[in-house]
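Re: weekly structure request thread

Next one in the queue (317 aa):
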Amino acid sequence: MGTPEFAARILEGLLASSDVRVLCVYTQPDRPAGRGNKLLAPPVKALALERGLPVRQPETFRSGEAQAELASLAPDFLVVAAYGMILPQTVLDIPRCASINVHTSLLPAYRGSAPVQRAIMDGVPVTGVSVMRMEAGLDTGPVYSRIEMSTAGETAGSLLNRMAAAAVPQLLDVLNRVREGALEPVPQTGESCYAAKIAKAEGHLDVYRPVERVDCHLRGVTPDPGAHVTLELQSGDVSVLLEEVRVVKDRTGEPGSVLARKGLLLLACEGGCLSVLRLKPQGKKSMDAAAFLNGLRLNGPELVQVGRVRPLDANGD
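Done, posted below.
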């Protein structure tokens, strides 16, 4: 049971194991996406169909019909990874061995739907993957296994890729040991916090803050919904998606100012700057900073202020 690319990577790992037979794949219903609002299949569905697996996409598991359909499979396990649907206890009790969730945090920290993004945005140096036995509460079940991972320099996308690769052998080990009766989960201890879903508006970047905080926020919303700023330049306003940046501590300017010279584009924050390496102007293709500056004829030899980043309003827009 899963929906996004991370879950597809977990499914791929299960399919590669000779110890596992995947009976059925459950994923979220297709959703409209893009300018045309065409229905888009989740990555897990695309992979499952490619491998010839049956796919089911119930709107809810509250109905007796959906529960009976699942029970008819007589599974040993439910394996859940970023499914995005609350499962009632009657569903969690269906498998012979256990219902197991691959959660991308060190529980009880960052329970909820966006644990990786929130951990990076909060500047947490270490997070990880917890493989847990599911219960009706939101990510409250006891933990079979956990691995720690550094967040340094990672975007949410890159860290999720690393987590998926590490979680597959971790999950397979748990499944085998639970099936053999050789592993019991340990109750969660410590302070919990909730990782709410990332709203689209959170992609608007506030550069009028300490550069370390701005960098954390940017990496946490990359690639989705992406880090967006509006540059108020002498030639006009340009909305851009920041695709790749690095922190520059030895250059400063008034927070919010846009500094440029040939091949170098800086957004000044408190205590440093973001050097923009790659960006995507609205309605255009992705490009490096040099191409962007050349197009605006901002390619002089001296570093000068060429505009400012539009501040966010009270609504975060």
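Residues 156-179 form the longest helix (24 residues). Helices lie at 5-15, 43-50, 64-71, 89-92, 115-121, 156-179, 211-220, 289-295.
Next request, please.
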